Amino acid sequence: MGRTPCCEKVGLKRGRWTSEEDEILTNYIQANGEGSWRSLPKNAGLLRCGKSCRLRWINYLKTDLKRGNITSEEEAIIIKLRATLGNRWSLIVEHLPGRTNNEIKNYWNSHLSRKADSLRIPSDEKLPQVVVELAKKGAQQHISKRGRRRKINTSVSNSTNEITVPVTSEENNDIEFDHTDEYGELDQDFITNCLWEGEGENLEIANDDNNNNEILSEDNYGKLDCWDWEYLDEILNNEIWTNSTKEAEQDNNNNMSLCDINDNMQNCMNKEATPQNIDPMQSDLVAWLLS
DNA sequence: AACCGTCTCAACCGCCCTGTC
DNA sequence: GGACAGGGCGGTTGAGACGGT
């Protein structure tokens, strides 16, 4: 058994599209509209896979596409959104009118991914308190219980929904890491690694009195997906907000969740709204993200 | 001019989600 | 609820462009 191919590949043309093919596809879609990609090639008289037609249309032939180099403003948006959303290119391009996710993905991979390592917060920029708190929390936990990749075992059913923890001989649970710089300040690289580049595993924290359960908001490979809003929401509401305010303990419903913050941030980026009704600390976080 | 390594990006692959029957 | 088709998406590939020697 195998997966049904999206189309019969025998006899189909592959590789670069010719201008004649582009014209046929464009004319057909203008006359009949988008959709029914599987039947489109046959109806249009193209020797192409339906998926190939769709991709060609979406990425190059649509009339509302923006041509030309990525501007510095667009680049800044890509960097910021990629930091918050991860490789969710389809979400990222929603904020870049006229661009395609393939284009942005390629631009990231060829231009920005190598730059990413140098994308550090300027030393004179003050991190919002909430970020520092979060990173410190992660650092404390990181020392007592070193985080590691965890792969959720979905292939073997078991009654306890157990998380498998592959441990290799090279790994040592007792290793302690110093995440402070020479001035005793929390290492900025560590903070950004925690929060920015998918090293959120460092923020793993115990969730109950016995420190047995952990908040696990990871992908299938045990890697947190950059800004995991749901997870950060858990951390902030359970660990920071509730510890810092009695009111929060009494009425969690009044807390604005990080998901709300994220929504708010997205709205701000869409210029549909401005930050409002946010806790001052959370406001700092939003401001930082938007800066 | 020829060769070679690197970069770019259009295109492809295959997984996954959703809707329909 | 299961099977299937259609479509969307992110990761990867590879041909061509480019730059250095």
From TrEMBL:
GO terms for molecular function: transcription cis-regulatory region binding. Residues 9-61, 62-112 form the Myb-like domain. Residues 9-61, 62-116 form the HTH myb-type domain. It comes from the Eukaryota. It holds the Pfam family Myb_DNA-binding. GO terms for biological process: green leaf volatile biosynthetic process. One of its GO terms (cellular component) is nucleus. Its main location: nucleus. This is Uncharacterized protein. It comes from Solanum stoloniferum.
